[in-house]
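Researcher: I'd like a structural prediction for the single chain below. Treat it as a standalone chain; there are no partners to consider.
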Amino acid sequence: MKNLHHYIIIFVLSIFLFSCNSAKKQSSTNDITEKTWKLTEINGKPIQLKNPKNNPYFKLNTKEMRYEGHGGCNGVGGSFEIKPDIMRIKFNQGMSTMMACEDLETEQLFTKALLAADNYSVNGNTLTLNRARMAPLAKFVLSN
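Model: Treating it as a single chain, here is the predicted structure.
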């Protein structure tokens, strides 16, 4: 009977430790997913928008492994791959609407940064998309 109690305790502790480890992995994935990220800088320079209401942003949907967002005047979206344990990300060419607007240059730089990024870093409410070890391609803040 004593052995049975020991086995039960070991079993319960194993489940507890496994679920804690899974929660840690899940929370690292959630560092940037399922949140809206608003563009603040591109190629090391603060963005200058002619129409501040159209601030570029994106969101990562892990259920469908798709990103969606707005480049400033056109909707953007596509698939993505992420490896949160090593902070790797890859945005795949997707769709975009084709409307002309006054902030088209910022939109083109935004889209180019997404497609060029291969890793990311998070510092508080700031997300940085990077390529290799070069200067950041784009910086974003968590949108409310």
